[in-house]
Design goal:
The protein has about 375 residues and is of the alpha/beta class. It has helices at about 30-50, 70-85, 95-110, 135-150, 165-175, 195-205, 220-225, 245-255, 270-285, 290-310, 315-320; strands at about 20-25, 60-65, 90, 110-115, 130, 155-160, 185-190, 210, 235-240, 260-265, 325-330, 330-335, 335, 345, 350-355, 360-370. A 7-stranded mixed sheet has the order 2-1-3-4-5-14-13, with helices on both faces. Strands 7-6-8-9 form a 4-stranded parallel sheet, with helices on both faces.
């Protein structure tokens, strides 16, 4: 599915448009709620740029393509967007999809600013063409592991599905916990029913179960099974990948979905810019904006600043990553090359471990910050 070009706001800029490609999961099996929030942030920022006169008299135009969490679709979309003359490509939520898009953008010489995907190895080799706003998985998940240890959990079980993203997350947790006395046992959800998984948790004596699986299947049935098993009344369920962030989680699980800590990339308190953008996003979405919506807005803010300074030349955009200095909704954004990261990286966005308050599931509690 190709989504039409985003409207560009009032006719305050009348030069030829500067086009930005946007990769967003808008249909299943993509995480549609995340895609909707990401697109809301991207589109809001584009409209604000155009309301303020555009880029030296040229409107900014968002050309959206639905990846549906499919790497091949993402590669085809990058090819198409490059042919349409976009100055840069932005977006994507799913790490495996973003990795495919980044490789294609690098091969074509198209700048790609990744909004939300966290896989450390976003590209196989270092590249100057790709930058990223979301923190690397190893950074955020180590903070999550520290939270687990601080809460007294050292016997960890992970419910997993085959995926480089989940496998990498498991390795990060194991490597960080093992020297600190923690253990990690993997439970394959393709081989275990939710009920059999509960039996395995009892057998292993795990005090925490982490959901390294897709949403809503099989995450929701697993949560229901564990919550309904009296033997597991004291076990902590966690979801470092952020499944409980979105309203759909609370709608599907209600009280059972509360008290499940997850990673979120927001500061403890938003500044004036974040408050203003957050209010506009809430009006647009009809619900509280997730961190993914803020990532979308920040993505366009960075690219608009780069385009104002360096024009729409692709090579000039890529060369500008190390000189970016933009005030984002979640703090000042600058890019560097942290060890082991082959792209230009915001190091680091704020990281929180939060959960939904069991007494009020629409309210989030900050449990740990990194």
């Amino acid at each position: 599915m190709n989504t039409p070009v985003s409207p560009s706001g009032p006719e305050c800029a009348d030069g030829p448009p500067v086009r930005l490609g946007a990769l967003v999961p808008l249909t299943r099996p993509g995480w549609v709620a995340a895609g909707r929030h990401l697109l809301a942030g991207l589109d809001l920022a584009v409209r604000e740029v155009n309301d303020a006169g555009g880029l030296d008299g040229r409107p900014l135009e968002l050309v959206v393509r639905d990846t549906a969490a499919n790497p091949e679709r993402a590669v085809a979309a990058v090819d198409e967007l490059a042919g349409l003359g976009v100055a840069a490509v932005a977006g994507e939520y799913h790490s495996v999809v973003a990795r495919a898009a980044a490789a294609r953008a690098d091969a074509l010489g198209v700048p790609f600013l990744c909004s939300s995907a966290v896989l450390d190895a976003l590209t196989e080799e270092p590249t100057e063409w790709v930058a990223r706003l979301a923190p690397a998985q190893s950074h955020g998940w180590r903070i999550y592991a520290d939270f687990l240890l601080g809460a007294g959990h050292s016997r960890i079980a992970v419910a997993t599905q085959p995926s480089v993203y989940w496998a990498t997350g498991t390795r990060v947790l194991r490597d960080h916990l093992a020297p600190r006395g923690g253990t990690v046992v993997e439970l394959d959800t393709n081989a275990l029913t939710p009920e059999a998984l509960c039996d395995a948790l009892v057998d292993h004596g795990a005090t925490a179960l982490l959901l390294l699986v897709g949403h809503p299947e099989p995450a929701v049935p697993i949560v229901r099974a564990v919550r309904g098993d009296r033997r597991l009344a004291e076990i902590l369920i966690g979801a470092p990948a952020g499944q409980p962030e979105f309203a759909e989680w609370a709608a599907l699980l209600g009280q059972d979905g509360a008290g499940i800590p997850f990673l979120r990339y927001l500061p403890e308190h938003l500044g004036p810019l974040g408050e203003r953008v957050g209010k506009a996003l809430r009006e647009r979405l009809g619900e509280a904006p997730s961190f993914v919506a803020f990532e979308g807005w920040d993505t366009v803010a960075v690219l608009a600043a780069v385009l104002r300074s360096h024009g729409a030349d692709r090579a000039a955009i890529a060369e500008s990553w190390p000189r970016v200095a933009v005030e984002g909704t979640r703090g000042p954004i600058r890019f560097s090359r942290p060890p082991g990261i082959g792209v230009w990286q915001w190091a680091w966005p704020p990281v929180q471990v939060v959960d939904r308050d069991p007494a009020e599931p629409d309210r989030f509690r900050i449990l740990h910050t990194g």
